[in-house]
Design brief:
By secondary structure, the chain is α/β, with parallel strands linked by helices. It is built from twelve helices and 15 strands. The chain has two domains: 222 residues, 3-Layer(aba) Sandwich (Rossmann fold), CATH 3.40.50; 62 residues, Alpha-Beta Plaits. The longest helix has 16 residues.
Length: 333
């Protein structure tokens, strides 16, 4: 399990911020198969929201509805203040979409891809070339601009894909599994790009199967399973839903260790390492209770770390049954 000293609060989780995306009771079926069974979402402007779920859970369907590519069967959705059903043109003018599969035309150069997108956005030739040059430089693609996109690596194509998305200066970007198939270095580069977008005030709606990605980037995360939102919250809030969290206390003084073991009678001790493991959900309230008990007994620990379940545990607990997380972790060892 990952461990950390008390985590800093995440930014962007302001419930009072204007909603970039608001969804109430969204429903979608294909024949007898219910894909979305009345989901609710609220995504503050200028934040990263991650939608997790197993294959076939409906993540891409949500993106397609919110980006006006398909119609919902029921419910209401607003994007950038526009009703998705009543004002699809307003929605499309405010968003950018990058799907699982690159929209890059590999038969032409990177620069030509960008200029084509500028034409689609009705930019003048002069403005199109200016914006193209700026974005190619921003995404470190200037040297490759004159090369056919077929010669680009997977990471370069993804960067070009997002650069093309930014031609219209969207304030909300839907990234549908943007790092699928990328190597770790390219994935880290993409994470940096996403952080820069949000720093500029862009709202990012991210679907991903990489739990580390959601943990690293998202201000709020929702887990979609069987057509419903199984849970939603910050990464830390979701991790507290799963049992197994604890506080680890390390001592250098054997007498202090023994006194703490008496004061914290529910703790599991390691006499050789002089450590105590106290069950804890990672909340500030429970952590404060432990510290208060130590202070009352005039005991000071050398080191305190909070161990919480990771998003793998949360994901499998919510979507794959109680034993799935342990099996999955065992398979990766």
């Amino acid at each position: 399990m990952p461990s950390s000293v008390m985590p800093a609060p995440r930014q962007g989780d302001d419930r009072q911020s204007p909603a970039a995306v608001s969804v109430v009771g969204l429903r979608k079926s294909y024949g007898d198969k219910v894909v979305l069974d009345g989901i609710d979402l609220r995504i503050p402007a200028g934040s990263v929201f991650a939608l997790l779920g197993p294959n076939g859970a409906g993540k891409t369907t949500v993106v397609q509805i919110l980006s006006t590519l398909i119609a919902a069967d029921g419910g209401q959705a607003q994007v950038a203040g526009h009703d998705v059903a009543a004002s699809p043109g307003g929605v499309r003018a405010a968003i950018g979409v990058t799907g699982q599969f690159s929209a890059v035309d590999t038969l032409i150069t990177g620069e030509e891809n960008m200029l084509l997108m500028a034409d689609l956005h009705h930019l003048s030739k002069q403005e199109g070339r200016r914006v193209t040059a700026e974005l190619l430089e921003r995404f470190d693609l200037t040297e490759a601009a004159k090369k056919p996109a077929a010669a680009y690596s997977g990471g370069m194509k993804r960067r070009l894909d997002i650069a093309m998305t930014l031609i219209g200066n969207p304030r909300i970007i839907f990234l549908d599994e943007p790092t699928t198939g990328l190597d770790p270095r390219s994935r880290n580069t993409m994470w940096g790009i996403i952080r820069e977008l949000v720093a500029d005030g862009v709202t990012v709606f991210l679907t991903t199967q990489y739990l580390e990605e959601a943990d690293e980037l998202a201000d709020r995360i929702a887990v979609l399973n069987d057509g419903r939102i199984a849970a939603e919250g910050t990464a830390d809030e979701l991790k507290r839903l799963v049992p197994g969290g604890h506080v680890r206390l390390r001592f250098t003084d054997p007498a202090a260790y023994k006194a703490a073991a008496t004061a914290l009678d529910e703790a599991a001790g390691d006499d050789e390492a002089l450590t105590l493991q106290v069950p804890n959900d990672g909340s500030q309230r429970e952590l404060r209770a432990i510290l208060d008990r130590l202070e009352a007994a005039r005991i000071e620990a050398e080191e305190l770390t909070v161990h919480t379940p990771d998003l793998d545990d949360v994901f499998f607990a919510l979507t794959g049954g109680a034993g799935a997380s342990a099996q999955a972790k065992e398979a990766t060892r």
